[in-house]
Amino acid sequence: DPFHTVSIMVETRPYLDEYGETSPFLMVVVEGIQDETKVLFNKFITDEIAALQRREAKEKAKQTGILPFFSRFPTLVDRLEGIIHGKWRGVAYNTYFKLSKGLFEALEKIADQDEKYKDIVRLEN
């Protein structure tokens, strides 16, 4: 589960603050863990956006209804908020920005497929 990387980032952060000055070895290890988990989570987000772009090519404006990726976005937000507990706002905001940008770009491409249903697609999503 890619969200475990976020919980690892959140759980290891206090150790950097607490032991960073007194234990250089621990600081190096925890920083390495932090860096690796950030890379993994960013890769997950990038893969999700790529999947979204692949999916948009298959959608037809006339038959869309609520697009699946729009209906799953609130679940992603809830899971991420449940993990960070008000900490790491920067990670959350960057994630929301990247995903919402990808969502709306995909929505525009789907809406532009058919002039007749353009406004309906936008309103439903």
Structure summarized in a few sentences:
By secondary structure, this protein is mostly helical. Helix content is 78%, strand content 0%. The protein has helices at 3-19, 24-56, 68-84, 89-111, 118-124.
What does this molecule look like?
The structure is a single chain. The chain is mostly helical and 125 residues long. The protein has five helices and no strands. It has helices at 3-19, 24-56, 68-84, 89-111, 118-124. Helix 1 (3-19) runs antiparallel to helix 2 (24-56), helix 1 packs parallel to helix 3 and helix 3 packs antiparallel against helix 4 (89-111). The longest helix has 33 residues, at 24-56.
From the structure above, extract its key features.
125 residues; mainly alpha; elongated
Q: How large, in whole angstroms, is the Cα Rg?
A: 19 Å
Strand content: under 5%
Helix coverage percent of residues?
A: over 70%
What is the number of strand segments? 0
Largest sheet: none
- Number of separate helices: 5
Distance between the termini: 27 Å
SSE order:
HHHHH
Principal-axes geometry comes out as elongated
Q: What number is the mean pLDDT?
A: 85
Main structural class = mainly alpha
Low-confidence segments: none
SSE blueprint:
Blueprint: H1 3-19, H2 24-56, H3 68-84, H4 89-111, H5 118-124
